[in-house]
Task: structure prediction
Amino acid sequence: MKWQKLDNTAKIFPVIASENLTNVYRISVILKEDVQPEILEEALLEILPWFQTFDVRLRRGFFWYYFEKNKKKPKVMEEVTYPCRYLDPYANNQYLFRVTYYKKRINLEVFHAITDGFGAVNFLKELIYCYFDHLDGKKTTETKRSPSEDCFLNSEDSYLKHYKKQDVKGYETKRAVQLKGEHLKEGAVGVVHGMFPIEKVKEVSKKYGASITQYLTAVLIFSIYEAYYKVKPNGQPIRVNVPVNLRQYFESTTTRNFFGVLGVGMAFEEGEYRFEEILEQVKQDFKEQLNKESLEKLISYNVSNEKKWVVRLVPLFIKNIAVKWIYRNSIKAFTTTLSNIGAIQLREPYAKRVENVTLIMGASKKQEVKCGACSYGETMTMTFSSVLKDVSIQKVFYRNLANDGIPVSIMTNGIYYEREEE
Result:
């Protein structure tokens, strides 16, 4: 591959990305032993050529951005700053991802322009397998190493493949509740991991007749309502952006972006609201939006704009102005994001050498609080990332889980215990 178009969703990220809106997410694998960085870099260099989606740099054309094969080598570095910082496309040897480590933790941070959670997990699995093989002295010399049986290397644009022309309306633009408050010091991100037994949250979700994602989304909305909004409701909705993996609906294994977003939530007026009625609204939103017909309309709306000949002929610098304006309006329709990438499964014998896996979404001044969830083995981890000093929502969220009989253990990156510099 010499060059490649950005997929339909990816086109927006280079335009809006900045220090204040990084569009970077992190998936971390916590090992049962300290990371050996030299071995990790060897493994990275070995697997990278398999993945067209990662082995690129971003280039600016006259009409569109595009990807070009990156001939440089990525570096593995020790983590020295906060998670999900801006990935400057002209730094980091021009790679749009970074691999870092800290003690027993391996971090893969990805700029959303190259892939979504599915693609990142697919890449990270191969990195872990290769790392352990190198660590155990199983380097390949005479025979060429191959990807594992469950590795995907397809790099099609599944948005274009599954596009069907339809008359559809755009995204919701009604302004939702925005989480505001005093910010942490410049560049800082507060992280709070809440870990709980996956079987227990399955049991509680089933009791409510909900999926795990529906249950967690409802608890999040209820917690924001209790911690932030209950005193002065003004009729604005608390709306959560819930990314959805489209591959299970459209027969795709692409390693590029292929996700849609649901807008889930409800408006609050004066009076008391119970968790159960919030959950019912969440379930109704999922029912209306999470079906193939609605998702086809979502794809149609996104792709149809790209296909308009007028848009194609507009120079990139004008497109950028329009995209930024559209995005500024659309982002106000959401209060926060909750991304659940589900169960992460590793092959044996590698699985037993991993303690846990976590997902951190890149919070910023444009969306101050975000949530990422995944499970590994018997443990599910729901992680809040925030640039706000106040942690009321996090506290209420985990308390609400505990009130439902779900035992939660908490871990943070310590930012909330640091004393601010005078």
In short: The mean pLDDT is 91. The longest strand covers residues 237-245. The radius of gyration is 21 Å.
